[in-house]
Structure formats: C-alpha cells, structure tokens
Write a structure and sequence with these properties.
Elements (H helix, E strand, L loop, with lengths): L19 H11 L5 E2 L14 H9 L14 H13 L10 E4 L1 H13 L5 E6 L4 H8 L3 E8 L5 E2 L1 H6 L5 E7 L11 H14 L2 E5 L23 E7 L12 E7 L5 H13 L5 H4 L2 H6 L4 H5 L4 H14 L4 E2 L8 E2 L2 E2 L9 H12 L1 E2 L1 E2 L11 E4 L4 H22 L2
Parallel strand pairs: 1-13, 3-4, 3-6, 6-7, 7-8
Antiparallel strand pairs: 2-9, 4-5, 8-9, 10-12, 11-15, 14-15
C-alpha cells in the first residue's frame, strides 16, 4: 500500500498550543511525573467550574436535547444572544443574524471557509491566537500578520495594518480582549481599525470570547457597536466567561452593513446547514448563562481568585532578571519577554521543552502564537496560588540556570 499522506491543505497549518511539547508532557505523565500545566486556558481542571445554575438547567432540559435543532441554533438561545448584543450596543441584530456553533473554534473555521478563495488574504494580529492563522491557511487563504506593539501595551499598530493591505485583502481580525497578551483595546484604536476597514471595503472579524474577564475596573467595547456601515462578524461563547469549555457552545453574530454581504451570508448559512446543528446540550446553557448571575465578576474583582493569581504571576515573573511583561488588563494569560542579551534563545520550542524536562512546567513558546522572535512565552495563570507559586519558582530556577550557562 502506498503511503497515506495528509492533505496539502495542512502544510501551513500549525497549532502549537497542543503541539509536540504537550505530547512530551503526556509521556512524562504516563511515567508518573506530575506536570504543572500553564499551557491551555481551560478553567475547569483548576477548579473553575461552570456556574451551578447553568449545569442544573442543562440537566433539567436534557430530555429536549436528543433531536436536531434549527441549523443556526435554538430559538431561545439565539434570542438571549440577541438581547446580549443589545446590552453591548450592537444595533440591528436579528435572530437570523446569529449562528450557534460547537465553540468559537468551529465558527472561525466556518467563517474563513465561507469567505476565502485561494490567494485571498486576511490581516491577523501578531501575536495571535493561532487558530485564526490556521483557519485562514486551511481555507486556501494567506495570513498577513500585523504588529501589536508591546511598547504601547500590545495595541495594534494602525500604520502597519494599513501598510499590509493589498488588492487581495478580504478582512481584518481583532482579538479583543487579547489572547495571548491580555491587552484590552481602547475605543480610539477600534475606531481606527473601523476607518481602515471602511476605506478598503474589508470585513472585521472580532474575537471577543474574553469580554467579561476584565480586571482593575476596565470595561469592554464591542467594535461592532461603533459603526453600521462596515460588515462585522463577532464571536463569543460560554468557554471563558462561564468556565464551560467542554460544553462547546459559541456563537457568531453578523452585523453592520449586511446588504453587500448577502452572498457571503448565504454561504455561512449553507455551511451551518451542512453540519446539521451545534450540539444541543451546550445550546441549552446559553439562555441561563447570559441571563443569570454573572459570577465572573466575583472572580475578576480585586479580591477574586483570577485577579489575585494574575497579580501573583505578574509580580513573580517581573521580579526575575531580564524578564519584562505588560500587565494584562483582561483574559487569563501573561506574555512575558526575555531580554535576548541575557537569554540568547535560538529555538524557543527547544527552550520550552528543556524547561519541561528540567522543571516539569509546561508553557507555550511565543513563536507558537506567530510572534517572529524567540523571546516570549505565554503563561496561563489559572492554577491555584500554591501551584502557581511553585510554577513561578521553578521557572525562575530554570532561568537562573540558563543565565549562568550563557553568561559571557
């Protein structure tokens, strides 16, 4: 039998968050070693459970979950999402403008498959959540990465966005609040992106999955609330705000200037129909989640567990020689920088692997988020204070040994 090879479509597809270093960590766990995992933003294993009222509502309604729903999703769930768009001041959204999916991940792939022809380009932030780049490449498109400037708090560089637009550019992706940096974009940046999209006729894709995970009294502005003459596709879901990653319940909202996008919207509806519907138990959680008590507010308050863990991880990391970090305003991550003069890293994946082998702490290297230089890594600060303290201590010990080994 001839070798069975993967499709050429996968040649430029990469997702290092679950890449080879994670595979090595799993082997170590099978050998009985305990790994402190700071690689994936999955709240439940760290004791952040979905709110009990959501769990009970799903259980209570499970007898309704055995049949297909409308391909766009349950009416009651979409109506709750529509009401949420009104709270976010996004105008003109009807129930038919909402598609529920098996998490935002499925919908990102769907949105790119429905839009892109071979050779089309999409502007994606750098660093990014790598699924966006993978989805563009899988759809036959090309990701062009625009700079988010660490010196300005990881805000998008509007001039760089403008400079990277070509005749083949179809859309701009923003991740706000941002993964992996924890940045939160102010209104003037959002308005600048809208103006660029307006001038060049581009679709704005807004990943807002962390829009309630906000610290220090910050508030989130949905970019789709700022204009009605640009086409917006906004993504959100239950995974992060409601600690319900495994429910795989996300949604995509189409708003703004929808008339020129009639054909694209028909394509999205076709793709939604092809997968029949999103999983129904997850859909049953949406109405209760959006309309119930927002327990995330307790977790991100100054006395809340998430806020305390953010502060602990930030303080311990930035106390290390040659380590700097923009303090995250949102989300569940830090994206610290290692001074290349002190840490002359050539291969950051090998650097992260060596850290795993020596200290049994699992991170993801910066290049896994399409950052071009091997001088960053992402830290998930979800573990409890004791485990997080131990992880930061181990990272510090590893970096101390690395500095001494490479001292000139």
């Amino acid at each position: 039998m001839q070798p069975v090879n993967k499709s050429n479509k996968l040649s430029n597809v990469c997702y290092d968050i679950r890449g080879p270093v994670l595979q090595r960590a799993r082997q170590m766990e099978e050998d009985g070693q305990r790994i402190i995992k700071l690689n994936i933003g999955n709240p439940m294993p760290f004791g952040f459970n979905a709110p009990e009222e959501i769990v009970q509502d799903v259980i209570h309604n499970m007898d309704q979950a055995s049949g297909y729903t409308d391909s766009k999703g349950l009416f009651a769930a979409r109506k709750a999402i529509m009401h949420y768009t009104q709270q976010k001041n996004i105008e003109g959204v009807t129930i038919d403008d909402i598609i529920i999916g098996n998490g935002v991940s499925e919908l990102i792939v769907m949105a790119m498959q429905g839009l892109l022809n071979n050779g089309d380009q999409v502007l994606i932030p750098m660093p990014d959540y790598p699924l966006w780049t993978a989805a563009v490449n899988l759809a036959g498109g090309s990701a062009r990465h625009y700079i988010c400037d660490e010196k300005s708090g990881w805000l998008p560089d509007l001039k760089d966005i403008e400079n990277k637009i070509t005749a083949n550019t179809k859309g701009i992706v923003i991740i706000n609040p941002n993964n992996p940096t924890g940045a939160l974009y102010p209104q003037e940046i959002l308005e600048g992106i809208i103006e660029i999209a307006r001038h060049h006729g581009l679709v704005i894709f807004a990943d807002e999955i962390y829009d309630k995970v906000l610290y220090d009294g910050n508030t989130h502005t949905s970019i789709a609330s700022l204009a009605d003459d640009v086409l917006f596709v906004t993504f959100n879901g239950l995974s992060k705000n409601y600690r319900a990653c495994g429910y795989r319940s996300g949604w995509m909202i189409i708003s703004g200037d929808k008339k020129p996008a009639k054909d694209y919207i028909e394509g999205l509806n076709m793709l939604a129909s092809m997968r029949l519907c999103a999983n129904v138990p997850g859909q049953l959680a949406i109405q209760t989640a959006l309309g119930g008590y927002q327990s995330i507010n307790d977790l991100v308050a100054p006395s809340g567990r998430l806020c305390k863990q953010r502060d602990l991880a930030y303080d311990m990391l930035t106390a290390l020689p040659g380590v700097s970090c923009v303090k995250p305003q949102a989300a569940m991550y830090l994206f610290p920088r290692l001074d290349p003069k002190i840490y002359p890293i050539q291969d950051d994946q090998q650097f992260i692997l060596d850290l795993l082998l020596e200290e049994k702490v699992l991170l993801v290297q910066g290049t896994g988020f399409n950052w071009p230089s091997p001088d960053h890594f992402r830290v998930v600060f979800l573990p409890n204070v004791d485990d997080l303290t131990e992880a930061m201590t181990r990272i510090g010990r590893y970096l101390d040994g690395y500095r001494k080994k490479h001292a000139k």
